[in-house]
């Protein structure tokens, strides 16, 4: 039986009232002062140069012409992608000028350990954007040619294989843990803050392998890294010769949806202005081209649909944490 760690099914969240709900939003704060009238900061909670950073810089560029002001990307990596959004929730004014990417870790980590934020009450959700393309890579000169090679080496050499991810509690870390449990092997997790660090670690021989989203793409395409497997339901368009985990004998599908939110208490009219601009930005050809290069599947959801999706995702993550025994006291 296939275990799907997270594959969103957006149809169950789309209701006929979504469009009407958005259309009826009032904009009391906009009557007196035009929004925006200065640049908007978009927090990317990962290091510069990774797939999230590249995708969001393309989205910011595509969206700002529709918003009428610049969107400045600010990298705030740490805590598995939760540091930036958590700091925004704790300290930013709900005026629409500070936003953040919301990775799936925001909905999983509260079930694993004590955190200073509540994803259900501390954020104003704006728009859902896409899902990642995940994969496992090794250095191009590695003796491991396939995912099976890596697993069998780990089986014969317990704890000798090390792998880097963007952080503890991320989907990459959780999936690698699940693979180890299913295959009855032991390998060692080494957390980093994003793809630029995990890329450097595997290239430098500091870790055996890397489990990350497609920030490894330029290095794979340049022949510096070898892509052993991708983690989706089917092979990617860009690396169609590379098998999935399922095709490699590991019956798991794993991806990770993400969107954009601001601090709680944002004016509904401001949320609508941001939503409408980002929707147009998501659809811009230049943004879509970058997403294709990263093999990230665009999965737009409006504000009301995204809010409903968040509630279900939060509960799904609770069940996942309980199933894998990841709760820390």
Automatic annotation (TrEMBL):
It comes from Phreatobacter cathodiphilus. CDD domains: PBP2_Bug_TTT. Residues 1-31 form the signal peptide. This is Tripartite tricarboxylate transporter substrate binding protein. Keywords: Signal. The lineage of its organism: Bacteria, Pseudomonadati, Pseudomonadota, Alphaproteobacteria, Hyphomicrobiales. Transmembrane segments: none annotated. Belongs to the UPF0065 (bug) family. The keyword Magnesium does not apply.
């Amino acid at each position: 039986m296939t275990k799907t760690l997270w594959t969103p099914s957006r149809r169950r969240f789309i209701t006929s009232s979504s469009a009407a709900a958005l259309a009826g939003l009032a904009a009391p704060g906009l009557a007196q002062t035009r929004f925006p009238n200065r640049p908007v900061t978009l927090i990317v909670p990962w290091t510069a140069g990774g797939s999230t950073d590249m995708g969001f810089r393309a989205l910011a560029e595509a969206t700002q012409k529709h918003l009428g002001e610049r969107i400045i990307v600010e990298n705030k990596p740490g805590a598995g992608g939760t540091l930036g959004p958590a700091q925004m929730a704790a300290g930013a004014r709900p005026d629409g000028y500070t936003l953040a990417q919301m990775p799936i870790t925001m909905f999983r980590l509260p079930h694993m350990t004590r955190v200073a934020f509540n994803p259900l009450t501390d954020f104003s959700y704006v728009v859902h954007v896409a899902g990642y393309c995940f994969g496992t890579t090794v250095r191009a000169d590695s003796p491991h040619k396939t995912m099976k090679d890596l697993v069998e080496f780990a089986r014969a050499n317990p704890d000798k294989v090390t792998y880097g991810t963007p952080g503890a509690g991320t989907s990459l870390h959780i999936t690698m843990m699940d693979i180890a449990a299913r295959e009855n092997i032991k390998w060692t997790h080494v957390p980093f803050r994003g793809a630029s660090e995990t890329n450097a670690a595997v290239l430098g021989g500091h870790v055996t392998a890397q489990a990350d989203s497609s920030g490894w793409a330029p290095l794979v395409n340049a022949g510096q890294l070898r892509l052993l497997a991708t983690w989706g339901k089917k092979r990617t368009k860009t690396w169609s010769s590379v098998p999935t985990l399922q095709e490699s004998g590991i019956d798991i599908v794993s991806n990770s949806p993400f969107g954009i939110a601001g601090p709680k208490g944002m004016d509904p009219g401001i949320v609508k202005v941001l939503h409408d601009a980002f929707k147009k930005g998501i659809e811009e050809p230049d943004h879509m081209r970058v997403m294709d290069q990263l093999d990230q599947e665009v999965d737009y959801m409006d504000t009301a649909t995204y809010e409903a999706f968040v509630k279900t995702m939060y509960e799904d993550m609770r069940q996942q944490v309980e199933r894998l025994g990841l709760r820390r006291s």
